[in-house]
Automatic annotation (TrEMBL):
Residues 230-405 form the Ketoreductase domain. One of its GO terms (molecular function) is 3-oxoacyl-[acyl-carrier-protein] reductase (NADPH) activity. PANTHER family: 3-OXOACYL-[ACYL-CARRIER-PROTEIN] REDUCTASE [NADH] (PTHR42760:SF78), SHORT-CHAIN DEHYDROGENASES/REDUCTASES FAMILY MEMBER (PTHR42760). InterPro entries: KR_dom, NAD(P)-bd_dom_sf, Sc_DH/Rdtase_CS, SDR_fam. Belongs to the short-chain dehydrogenases/reductases (SDR) family. Its EC number is 1.1.1.100. Keywords: Oxidoreductase. Pfam families: adh_short_C2. This is 3-oxoacyl-[acyl-carrier protein] reductase. It comes from Marinobacter excellens HL-55.
Amino acid sequence: MSDLYLKLVNTPVGKTAAQSLGLPSPAPLKRLKRVDQPFIEGNVLVGAGPGAKAAATVGSILGASPATLLHASGQPSLADSALTGNKAKAVDLTSEVEGKFSALIFDATGLKGPQDLRALYDFFHPTIRKLAANGRVLVIGQDPHTCRKAPQAAAQQALEGFVRSVAKEVGKKGSTANLLWMAPNADNQLDSSVRFFLSARSAYVSGQVVRIGKADVAKASNPVAPLAGKVALVTGASRGIGAAIAETLARDGATVIGLDIPAVMADLQNVTDAIKGKALACDITDEKAPKMIADFIAKETGGVDLVIHNAGITRDKTLGNMPEHFWDMTIAVNLTAEELIDEELMHRELLRNNGRIVCISSISGIAGNFGQTNYACAKSGVIGYVEAMAKQLKNGITINAIAPGFIETQMTAAMPFTIREAGRRMNSLSQGGLPVDVAEAIGWYCSPASAGVNGNVVRVCGQSLIGK
Ligand SMILES: NC(=O)c1ccc[n+]([C@@H]2O[C@H](COP(=O)([O-])OP(=O)(O)OC[C@H]3O[C@@H](n4cnc5c(N)ncnc54)[C@H](O)[C@@H]3O)[C@@H](O)[C@H]2O)c1
């Protein structure tokens, strides 16, 4: 579904008309063009508050990119910015800052109390207006749940409000701001998340907070095809977000088993043929489905590494008008089936060590939505399932969820015009996302280097105003 307004408003006449009428002026988002594209280019400025623990790691991650590395200087509160490494050139923030930055990164891991928050102001106040269009703001803090003292937890929690507000301020230029909360000594797990959030892959992800825990260090052996040798199961793969997930995981090297209902087999076959994958016709609500899927995997690939529960349906009606089968079907497809499939795959030891399970929730599951008691109930249940399973899974297996906002698919094309337009514009980037935006986020979860990313619910919603 194309967004005509986005195209019009980016013509010279459209831009002037939108400005004079006070209409939103969404900036075109730069998405990944080539798989071997550097994750960041241009000038990247790193700042660090007192006691910074991640700056050296960030410096070495950026050292693998062609970006020009710079570090903040001049303010006593930013003295630790020099930990970024001796390859970084100092930029004095007490005098006029020249040029534009493609990214501003701030290491807040050492902030011990509210008095230390001044370092955020000292770093961002002179630089935020120098952030280029489609720029990236990334703040790294310590997970408040791991802070022993209340002032430290307060300072670390404060980062969430700060980053979410920055995201709202920079969104009109197509820029994003996100926060990584790491566990103590988990800086060796930052690599895949720093790369993702600085890159064009996260174009539609903004205002998000990701928890990064301790895990064994794992790196993708092939940076262009990080999923080489992995087998992925993608449900609902014949169209929309599912087709984009299948294509993206295949692009990253995985062998994909695409699954969908028998009625859409021809479409599914088109998707899987194009990526040299395998097609499985199956209704996931069929009571024989978990066994059928497990048998197929056992026979065709001998196991699976990545399980992506994408299939979903909406059956909207206000609760008093909702027929029984709307309720039952929506819960069965969006929630129950995922749990039963995982149970069978694990019971038969088909989910391999260091596997990844990714579930699709929705912002409706976070905020609720009129006429969607059934859907929001199921998508909220997905979050509960992910959070509980993340604590139980062993052998390096992780589970995370994506909660998409308004994504341009057949599901959203079927919405009434006014609701569709509102969904598109009511976010910090003033536009809908594309299926590939969800798929890229799933690629990041699935990376072998994302072992420390577990139990998260990341919204791919352009920081939708709906929900928190
Ligand atoms: N499009 C959005 O804006 C949006 C927003 C939030 C969440 N989501 C979620 O993202 C996922 C994909 O959404 P989409 O927009 O691509 O939807 P879509 O309707 O275009 O595709 C869903 C796919 O799931 C398949 N499916 C449905 N029931 C199935 C069953 N019983 N067994 C097997 N396959 C089944 C369908 O045939 C279809 O191919 C869904 O879980 C949806 O709830 C989408």
